[in-house]
Design a protein that fits this description.
It is built from eleven helices and 15 strands. The protein has 353 residues and is α/β, with parallel strands linked by helices. The chain has a single domain, classed as Rossmann fold (3-Layer(aba) Sandwich). Strand 1, helix 1 and strand 2 form a beta-alpha-beta unit.
């Protein structure tokens, strides 16, 4: 039986990975200390997802470990040998990082280094997958020429049609402190792959979504938008005329990509990981779609100032990953993702009254 470690195991990608590799017959160890609640308050609490995982898995063990705690990680890694490490734990909001810069860096950068070193010391043959972010590019993607359409911004040049590739620079650009801490982790993860020849892969995620998201205003765009529409809560659209574009990828497709990499790892490689052109949507388009889907009007206001360092139009170019792993493809389109999220939100609302 293979042994898999998932950090941030109660989060969106982490919980999807737990379920997926548990179904594959792996023994899955999850570590998650519910810091999302500390970052975002009660709406960010992930205990509901932990309880759900315990009820649907066969070989899942959960530990409330803080990835900043080197001694606790060392003890965990000494006690078992892992074949696969999927590192999803993070402080995930570029807005929140402004208020907690030291905590943000300790979790995102130092926590990642702690895990990489524990892997090197105790499970050096393991595949290590790090969930990075497209925020490592800072606002450099905004330098790509754009044109304004009725409901979205669009790339102006045909050569940019597929989106932002891994060749986009990551320095000399405004990142947000979150983007900087994740860029530090991204680079050190690459270095463990290239310098130590470890099986480390880096996924630079775009908008990751799905029914297991504990979406809040500062993190989880589609999930929080759906929650506000369903509950009648207020929603704020920040800048760019509401025409900013994101490509959204279902957590299932991210984990399938992880599975492909784990079967044939390329040490130190980085890949942009998002929904691509076909799963791109603007804020205005998302609001209209969710209103139509739910039959409810969203109570939203427009704030003329965009979030600092925010992307105007970001679509992940998936060409590199698809060329390295040709059997992988996007299986969940936006319509299917919206339907799953709505069903999950209605179920949660019914359960919690």
């Amino acid at each position: 039986m293979k042994h898999t470690l998932v950090t941030g195991s109660s989060g969106l990608i982490g919980s999807e990975a737990v379920e997926h590799f548990d179904r594959q017959g792996n023994h899955v160890v999850g570590i998650d200390n519910n810091m999302r609640r500390e970052f975002f308050g009660a709406p960010g609490d992930t205990l509901w997802n932990l309880n759900r995982l315990k009820s649907v898995t066969k070989n899942f063990s959960h530990f409330s470990v803080d990835i900043r705690d080197r001694a606790a990680l060392d003890e965990l890694f000494r006690s078992r040998r892992f074949d696969l490490i999927i590192h999803c734990a993070a402080q995930p909001s570029h807005d929140k990082a402004r208020d907690i810069p030291i905590l943000d860096f300790e979790v995102n950068a130092l926590g990642t280094l702690n895990l990489l070193e524990a892997t090197r010391q105790h499970s050096p043959e393991a595949v290590f997958l790090f969930m990075s972010t497209n925020k490592v590019y800072g606002d450099a993607p905004n330098e790509v020429p754009l044109k304004e359409l009725e409901t979205r911004w669009e790339y102006a040049r045909s050569e940019d049609y597929n989106g932002i590739s891994e060749n986009c620079r990551i320095d000399r650009t405004l990142h947000s402190l979150f983007g900087a801490s994740k860029a530090a982790a991204d680079l050190v993860a690459q270095e463990y792959g290239r310098y130590f020849k470890m099986n480390v892969g880096v996924f630079r995620g775009g908008c990751l979504t799905g029914p297991s998201h504990s979406g809040v205003e500062l993190h989880g765009f589609l999930s929080y938008l759906l929650k506000c529409t369903m509950s009648g809560g207020k929603y704020s659209v920040f800048g760019y005329k509401g025409k900013q574009v994101r490509d959204n990828i279902h957590s299932h497709d991210v984990v399938r990509a992880m599975e492909e990499f784990a079967a044939n790892p390329r040490p130190g490689e980085v890949y942009n990981m998002g929904g691509g052109r076909e799963n791109s949507i603007s804020m205005l388009e998302a609001i209209a779609h969710i209103e139509q889907l739910t039959g409810k009007r969203l109570n939203w206001t427009y704030v003329d100032e965009n979030r600092k360092g925010d992307h105007i139009c970001y679509i992940s170019d998936l060409t590199k990953f698809k060329s390295h792993y040709p059997s992988w493809k996007i299986a969940k389109n936006l319509d299917a993702t919206f339907d799953e999220m709505l069903a999950a939100e209605r179920k949660r609302a019914a359960t919690h009254g």
